[in-house]
Design goal:
alpha/beta; two-stranded antiparallel sheet; Rossmann fold; 7-stranded parallel sheet; 11 strands; single chain
Length: 236
């Protein structure tokens, strides 16, 4: 089974396009794929039911992708504040139990994190603790437009300190037309100062993108085999 945890280095709302794009691409390559979102904030109520923006978007891209969650919070704040407002205490054991229940349902399971490894979830509980507990490799998704190199390097080095396996880094929302020297140097600086590989650089993706076009963007812009550390016959 292929397992991957996608995280960021700051709040990156467009990270979901990478998550959904990778899941849809793996489906198109013959792998049944699921997406697990342990925690989501800012969910809406519709007809008495919670509606997840991110999981709904994944279903829009490919309705055959299985989706799972543990905690859905209405307040669009940091998860620890959202949970406090709703009187919830998010627990590690709940996430571990839910993850173990879905492990054998798909050939490829992508877990979609929040804003970054240091995101507080409850007392003495950070996003990095989920990754360590589930013991799965991570893929960093870094915004080429909004991320600063300092936060990016600190996040990657923190993962290394924790002995978390990093499969690589994807830069999304990359403004190719920019003349900003720092933006242009970002991919080189990340690789030079972390010894981790950039596996893809993606332009800004429109939320209304056609699903087939999103898959094409993924295949053209990302080294899919390196993301999942597997040889895929349809790509060779």
């Amino acid at each position: 089974m292929l397992e991957l945890f996608i995280t960021g280095v700051e709040q990156n709302k467009n990270k979901i396009y990478v998550t959904s794009g990778l899941a849809a691409t793996m489906q198109s390559l013959g792998y049944s794929c699921g997406v697990y979102k342990p925690i989501e904030t800012g969910v809406k109520q519709k007809n008495g039911k919670y509606v997840s923006n991110d999981l709904s978007y994944i279903k829009f891209i490919d309705p055959f992708i299985n989706t799972y969650y543990s905690y859905q919070l209405e307040n669009d704040l940091s998860p620890i504040l959202s949970a406090a407002k709703e009187g919830l205490l998010m627990e590690k054991n709940t996430i571990l139990r839910d993850y173990q229940k879905i492990l054998d349902k798909d050939e490829c399971l992508i877990t979609d994190g929040l804003s970054g490894l240091g995101t507080p979830l409850s007392k003495n509980f950070l996003e990095e603790d989920i990754v360590k507990m589930l013991d799965i490799p991570i893929l960093f998704v870094v915004s080429g437009k909004n991320s600063d190199i300092n936060n990016t390097l600190l996040s990657i080095n923190r993962a290394n300190e924790l002995n978390i396996k990093i499969n690589g880094i994807i830069i999304n929302d990359y403004p190719y037309e920019s003349n900003d020297a720092e933006i242009k140097m970002m991919p080189k600086l990340i690789e030079e100062y972390t010894n981790e590989k950039i596996l893809g650089i993606l332009p800004k993706i429109d939320k209304n993108i056609n699903p087939e076009d999103l898959i094409t963007v993924m295949l053209n812009g990302i080294d899919i085999e390196s993301v999942f550390k597997i040889k895929i016959s349809k790509l060779n």
